[in-house]
Specification:
Elements (H helix, E strand, L loop, with lengths): L17 E4 L3 H12 L4 E5 L9 H12 L8 H4 L2 E5 L12 E4 L5 H14 L5 E4 L6 H4 L5 H6 E6 L8 E6 L5 H13 L4 E4 L8 H19 L3 H8 L9 H9 L3 H12 L14 H8 L16
Parallel strand pairs: 1-2, 1-4, 2-3, 4-5, 5-6, 7-8
Antiparallel strand pairs: 6-7
Helix pairs in contact: 8-9
The structure holds nicotinamide-adenine-dinucleotide.
The site of nicotinamide-adenine-dinucleotide (NAD) has 28 residues, from helix 1, strand 2, helix 4 and strand 6.
Protein name: 3-hydroxyacyl-CoA dehydrogenase/enoyl-CoA hydratase family protein
Length: about 300
């Protein structure tokens, strides 16, 4: 049973409905995984075209259904996904036991969304951020005690369907019973390996991972290696067999890199060796300016769409 026990606000039957806010690379994949586990999902994104207010989330769902090689999500699971937009459907989060925020990595936008959520969510339901680098302490700043009690970080990895790791970060105010219920759901319903990380910059995986990716780029540039040559060294031999390090960046989204760097620079102590990654990388800046942000854009290190 997914029962969270009497001391959390999650229904006795466990997590019966999930809301994912942000239908991008991560949010759409997380929503698909939850639906594949047989749990209904409300998937919300912004309104880009007032004539088609749900178009962003709907397009994400359509892409998942068409994803190759195998359908990313079964047709049956897709019926469990309700798409919507944050302007007219946010009040529906009151029906959800767990709200997962997976919008862009910007503290100001996350704060603005949490403020709106606070007014409509059911107290006692879980709310988590998929942030890669923003400390939990900063995310709950300005929110009520009740919000902070129900809040945690659940950091999924890309692509959510294949990456088994999930980092769960609780804050000093987080309700342990609720954190337990979410971790248990991630483990049993989603098949994740749950790693409890502390609220430190970049948590565990990104602190190490971002550093490693940056070093791969610097080494490739300094040594004049092609992407293929660099990946022959840092890809398969270092445990990234399918994509290589550069292919991983195409998958993750190259536009995420400056956000990761900005949050790490803002939070790491001055003498921390991982600050090296905060150095501006002109190649990345130029690629982003040219729209080469990876698979979701017009290409990246490897792929030209
Ligand atoms: P993305 O840019 O692919 O998608 C973000 C989505 O959020 C977009 O569809 C955008 O329209 C939507 N959005 C923006 N503001 C919104 C708002 N106020 N309300 C509703 N929707 C809004 O981003 P992503 O790569 O999926 O990253 C999402 C989060 O997950 C970030 O916090 C990121 O750090 C984290 N993350 C990313 C990866 C990765 O590999 N890309 C891995 C782990 C964690």
């Amino acid at each position: 049973s997914l029962s969270a026990g009497p001391s959390s606000g999650i229904r006795p039957s466990g997590i019966g409905k999930v809301c994912v806010i942000g239908a991008g690379t991560m949010g759409a994949g997380i929503a698909a995984q939850v639906a594949n586990a047989g749990v209904p999902v409300l998937l919300l994104d912004v309104v880009r075209d007032p004539a088609k207010p749900n178009a962003v989330a709907q397009a994400a769902l359509d892409r998942l259904l068409k994803a190759e090689p195998a359908a990313f999500m079964s047709k049956r699971a897709a019926r469990l996904v309700e798409v919507g937009n944050i302007e007219s459907d946010l009040t529906k989060v009151a029906d959800c036991d767990w709200v997962i925020e997976a919008i862009v990595e910007r503290l100001d936008l996350k704060h603005a969304l949490y403020e709106k959520l606070e007014a409509v969510r059911r107290p006692g339901s879980a709310i988590s951020s998929n942030t890669s680098t923003i400390p939990l302490g900063q995310l709950v700043e300005g929110r009520s005690e009740a919000f902070a009690r129900d809040f945690l970080i659940t950091h999924f990895f890309n692509p959510p369907r294949y990456m088994r790791l999930i980092e769960v970060v609780a804050g000093p105010q987080s309700n342990p019973a609720l954190v337990e219920a979410v971790a248990d759901f991630a483990d049993r319903a989603l098949g994740k390996t749950v790693v409890r990380a502390k609220d430190t910059p970049g948590f565990l995986a990104n602190r190490v991972g971002t550093f490693w990716i940056q070093q791969a780029i610097n080494a490739a540039i300094d040594l004049g290696l092609s992407v293929e040559e660099a990946d022959a060294v840092v890809g398969k031999p270092m445990g990234v067999p399918k994509t290589g390090v550069f292919g991983l960046m195409d998958l993750v989204g190259i536009d995420l890199m400056p956000h990761l760097k900005a949050s790490l620079t803002a939070t790491l102590p001055a003498d921390d060796p991982y600050r090296a990654i905060a150095i501006e990388q002109p190649l990345i800046t130029r690629m982003i300016a040219d729209g080469l942000i990876g698979r979701k854009g017009k290409g990246g290190f490897y792929r030209l769409n």
